Each structure stands twice: as C-alpha cells, then as structure tokens.
Amino acid sequence: MARTVIEARNLSKHYNGIVAVDRLNLDIREGEVYGILGPNGSGKTTTILMLLGLTEPTSGSVRVLGWDPTRYPLRVKANVGYIPDQVGFYGDLTAWENLMYTAKLNGIPRQEARKRIAQALERVGLSDVAHRPVRTFSRGMRQRLGVADVLIKDPKIIIMDEPTQGLDPESARQFLDFILELKKEGRTVLLASHLLHQVQAVCDRVGLYYRGKKALEGTVEELARRVLGFAYRILVQVRKDARRLIEPLQRLQGVQRVEIKDDQTLIVHCERDMRPEVAQAVIQQGAQLLRLDMEMPSLDDVYTRYFQEVRHGRGAGG
Amino acid sequence: MAEAQVVERPVVREKEGSPWTGLWAVVAKEMADHLTSFRMYILEFLIAITAVGTVSAASSAIRSVAGAQPKFLFLKLFTVAQEPFPSFVDFLGFLVPLIAIAMAFDAVNSEFTQHTLARILSQPIYRDALLMGKFLAGLLTQFLIYGAIWLLVFGLGIFWLGVPPTAEEVGRALWLLVATVFYGGVWMAVALFFSVRFRQPATAALASIAVWLFFTVFWPMIASGLAAMIAPIRIGLPEEILAQARWLLALRRIAPGWLYTEILVALLRPEVRTLSIVLPFQLEGAILGQPLPLSQSVLLIWPHLTGLIAATLILFALTYISFQRQEVRA
After folding, report:
1. Which of A154, A200, B2, B17 has fewest C-beta within 10 Å?
2. Looking at the structure, do residues A11 and A150 belong to the same domain, yes or no?
3. Is B9 or A2 the better-scoring residue by pLDDT?
C-alpha cells in the first residue's frame, strides 16, 4: 500500500469562537486524487490552509510528507503546490514574468527556471501568450497558468481549491484532464470542490465535509452504497411487456430488487456490475432487448440525499 | 511550580529556515514594479521638473550676487527661492510624502484584491520576507530617485555656476539624501500600515493622506493651542514665555515634516548653530555667521535623524505585527 503523504489527527481550527474545522482526521495516500466535498463554509479552505501552514491549527496535528507544516513550513511549501480558488497573478506582468517570480521565490536557478517555465507553459498551452500581460487573460487561461505555476516547483502534492469554478465546460474538462495527467506522473492531488460530477470524474476517494467535520469518506461507490443503499442500477429497455421479466431477473444472484418504470423499462438494482447476466436473462425470456445501460451511482445523488438526511437529523456518520 | 509541569512544558516550536528566504526576489520584483509603473513616472517627472525649475531660478539668483557669497553655493541651489517660486527643499517637503504614500498605499491590499497573496505565501517563503521586501524595495527606490535628482541638481549647478562642489557640500548633500529617504520612510510606513489594515486601496490612500494633512496643516495649530494650555503665560514673565516656546517646539517636533525642515535648515545652512531656543547670554563669545563644520551640523541633526528612523521602524513594526496576525483568507 502506498505511503500516507498527508496525515491530520484531531485537527481543529476556531475563528473567533466559530469552529471552522472540528477534530478532523485525514489520511491521503501517495498518488491518489482525493476530493474534499462540502457546502460553502464547511471548512474545506481552512483545512487546506492548515495543511500548507498558512494558518495555525487551534489543536491537533498535521504531517505533510512527514513534516509538520507549522514547524517546517518552507520544506512543506517547497514540495506542495497550491492553486487557490480564484488564483491571481500580477496583471501588469506577463505570464512568463509571473512564473519567473514564482521560480525565484522557490530559489530555482535562472537557467533551470527558464527551462521549467518554457515546459510548463507549453504543457498548459500558453506558450504563444507567454509574453502578454496576464490582465488580458481569460478566466480559463488564468486557471491554466495556475497549473503552470505549481508545475514550476515540481511538487509531490498539488492542492486545488475549487479549480473549475467559473470555467466554461470545455475549459473545465481540459482542467480535469490536467488533473488526471498529474496523477499519472505520480503526484498526489487534493481537490476541494462542490462541483460533484467533476469530482466524481477524477477522484479516487472522496471525503464529504459538513460543518467542519468529515461526515463520510470513501470511493464514490462506497459512499453510494452507504448513503443510497445500492451501488449499481441497470436500466433495461425491451420492445414490450417488461413486467414479465421482473420475476426471472429477481431470481438472479446479486440482484437486490427490480423496479418497473413503464411497459418497456425496468431498473435493476444490484450489488455489482451484472450487465452480462441481466442481458442473458432477458434474452432467455425471449424479450427483444432494445437497450441495456448501467447508471453509475452519482455523487450528486449521494450528496443530495446525505444532506437531506442531515437536515432531518438522521445523518449517517458525522 | 510543580516539577511535573516543568517536564510537560511544550517543546519550543522553533521554525526552520531564515525569515529572509526569498527576500531579494521580493525586493527585485517590487523595485521593478515601482520603477516601471506609470504612477511613478508621473511623480518622477514632477520632481524632476521641480528640481530643474527651482535650481535654475536659484542659480540665476546666486549668479547675480555671486561676488558677495562665495561659500556653499551648491547648498544654496537647494534653498534659494526666487519669487514667486518656492525653493527646491520647500517642494521636497511635500513631494516626498506624496511619493512615499503613492508607493505603499496599495502594497499589501492589492495582493488581496488581485488574489495573489495566497499563491505567493504558498511559495517557500515566510510572510516576513514579503512585507520586508516591499518596504525595503520602497526605501531603495527612494534612494534611487532622490540620488538621481541630487545628481541632476549638482550637474545643473556645475553647468550654471561654473564651479565644482566642495567635499563639504557633497557630504552635506549626502546626509540630506539619507534624511530625505527616511522622511519618506516614515510616510511609507504609514501608508504600508494602512494598506495592511484596509482592504480597499482607496481607503488606505485617503487615510494616509489624512494623516499627512493632519500633521502638516492642523498639527502646528494644535501644537500652539496645547503649548498655551500646558504652559500658559499668566503675567508675561520671560520664564513663562520661554517655557511656552519650549513646549511649542517640543510639540511641533512630533510632526515628521517639522523634523525634516529642521534637518534641512541645519544641513543646508552651515551657519545655523542650534535648532532650539537660544537666549542672548548663551551666544556670548560665539562668532556669529561663521559656518559649522559638517560633523557639528550632523551632531545637531542627530536626534532628528534618529527620530525619523525610529518612527519609521516603529511604524513598520506595527505594520508587521498586524500583517502577521492577518488571516490569509480574504
């Protein structure tokens, strides 16, 4: 198993009597993409700032790559790249100059810095605007420049706070591709967001935050199983008379229940991916199969359901 | 104290690395910003034409009486005024605070409004380096600007007066340069403080200018009022008049502008022997009108200069504490 690169134990932060983060435990493993999810004000940004040593925890401890960020902030910050929400650059400086400043603050020698800047800009597709002032950049370009900015220090861990907020769908998709690329390079990515389908698309594990506490944690499937009570939904569409398929499908090993939508459509709830078995059963019954589809459990459903339950005082976990 | 408590005392949480890591990167960036910003172009242009204008007026005035006053011609370039224009140092008295405030009023809050602060502080530097770098860059920029202006004045002086400056004059001008930079330093520290306290650059600029106006316009009036209250003249005894005058002077010296003016007087007019109140009997045996050597003039302004530097440092320390306590989140 991969080693733990970010570890928080009983981490708390109080701002003027308000508890922003409450006895949080967090273990993030090397090379994974971890999503911190939660409504606004649930302590996501505060947690991130404590991991970086930019805010002192009220109590509890943090280890990032084995170092305590409050005591070894420079070492931690040299190895962790941070893209804040609404990442900002100096508008009057060009993209290249902004990155050069970052390189200098990281103590990277000039020659090496030039090389890394050229590579980073190339990678995010900003090479041809490298010498334009950043104030002329669009939101999407700035966000990509943010990625280039963290790549300058070649970090082991990259932390992003709401990276796709305010991006158009195309830029957002591009950004998610960057995240997957970074993961391929063996970097650990910590992502805070409330854009669920995006988190679902890239994250290996997800932590659901609520009022400064981590309410749930796991893969999207695990969360779905815990909150929604099922993991896989297979949609079956036949030419006619779907009702007669209910009973044979229900007999299959692993099917939890079968729901009928209309005369043509069934939804099979099962505990694993049973598409082949379901297809076979349908054919065996002599029905004309038009469509067979598996709905992945959506984080949106998990999230909505979870917070509905919390609001009604029946919250799981937290 | 119980033994157990001593043992359980938490380990001193010393941080690794120097707080100055990255300082020079910040200084270089901030200086480049100052020296290329449009705002500074305007002010530099303003101070340059002021220098040329006043020095040309002064040199024509000096040339007309050159025979009578052969000493310290170059210092007179700074001080001689020809109606209706004030002298160069009069201009400096208000241009220096203006430049200093213009350089610092948005130093920190613009990092918030541009959303750059979190990104910069997530680089391997301490906050100390950022604030210190900004301040140092401001001081160095002032050195550069005023140094250039001083050279301009001396160059024009050589050109128009036709004589080279003496070592003594150069020495006095250099001391004046140091005093000018720290006079600017006080106002820069004020503006920097407001730039940490107020999120809106406009608010910080207005607050800085308000403080400056208070000390230049209102403080002299308030000082006279206070002096009259503290040491009232009841019967009109000389002691009473003297006490009030001493109080007035002491109160006025709280204003950095007043200190700077006294420094100007002592440095640029070598015949000035004291900046305090002198009674006739104290002048017995003095050869009036004889210039003091540079070392004596410097001795005269030493308290003023240390006062300006101390004020700069205290204001900077306040700014520093305030910045250290601030949360990174906007």
Report:
1. B2
2. yes
3. A2
